[in-house]
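User: Last request for today: this protein with coenzyme A, please.
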Amino acid sequence: MRRALYPGSFDPITKGHVDIVRRALDVVDELVIAIAVNIRKTPTFSPEDRVQMIRECFPGEARITVATFQGLLVDYAREQKIRTVVRGLRAVSDFEFEFQMASMNRRLTDEVDFIFLMTSEEHFFVSSSLVREVAINGGDVSDFVPEPVERRLRARFAS
Ligand code: COA
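Assistant: Here's the final one, the structure of the complex with coenzyme A:
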């Protein structure tokens, strides 16, 4: 049974992330979507809201678990006895950051390895902060986020 971790801020989850989740489920049996809770950041959505939104994006998908973690990713992976971390690549610019992060994580432990999946072309430019920016200014984000997220964004920024 191959289990993998897909970590991120997911503030909020976008269709680009959903695309990576779908691709990951083609290569692993179970995926833990792990929301990193950074106490130094002020997120738009609380960890609980983010968990809820992600769950609503994958109704009835028994192979997905949604969790939150604090601290180092490699410590959480070890705690969960997971040796594979999935990351999405959108553009060449992502590669540099991912390469740096994977290299640092590898220095921290050799028990965890990274696999990188390419995001579909139509989502190359999507990021959570751009989606928030469009939503704040009353734009239509339905092409970029799943319906449960769109609904939450509309409610959050209605005024
Ligand atoms: N589709 C759409 N958007 C995507 C995407 C995809 N496939 N992949 C990433 N993004 C977006 C994210 O929404 C995010 O957007 P934002 O910056 O506008 O919010 C941006 O690209 C960066 O995403 P990502 O690189 O995944 O950063 P993150 O903050 O979501 O996650 C962690 C980074 C949580 C994995 C990393 O900080 C971590 O491991 N933290 C734990 C502490 C730790 O171990 N640190 C040491 C690391 S060496």
